[in-house]
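I hope you will forgive my troubling you with a question about protein structure. I should value your view on which stretches of the chain appear to form regular backbone elements. Here, with my thanks, is the record as I have it:
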Amino acid sequence: MSDSPPGGPEAAPNDEILTTNVREESIDETLRVLADHERRYICYYLDREGQIGVDELARFVAATKAGGHPDADDLTSTAVALRHVHLPTLADAGVVTYDREEGTAKLAEDAPFVRELLSVTGVELQ
C-alpha cells in the first residue's frame, strides 16, 4: 500500500488533465441512447424519411426486427415501445423531435453528431 496521496506522483500534470464539458456529456448521452439497436433503426429511418408518423415508424421497426414480416402483435408491441420508451428517450437526449399529440417524430436538426455516427456504422435501409 502506497503512502502517496490519490493523484500522487503517477498523476498527470495539471496542464494534461482533460475537463468534462457540456459537449462531452452530450456525446456520452447520445452514445448511451444509440447503444440500443432499435433506437439506431429509428434514427436511420428518420434520417432517410424526415418527419413521419409513429405508426409508419412502428411498421418499419417491426419489419426490421421480424425480417420483413411482422404480425399484428409485433406491430402493437413495437408501437407501444416507440411511444413510451424509445421516442421519449431519444427526445430527452436531443436526438429526435417527438410530438406526442401529433404522433410524429423526426431526427433533430441539431442532433449531436448523430448523422456522422449513423454514416460510420454503414447500415443501408431497403
The first strand starts at residue 52 and ends at 53.
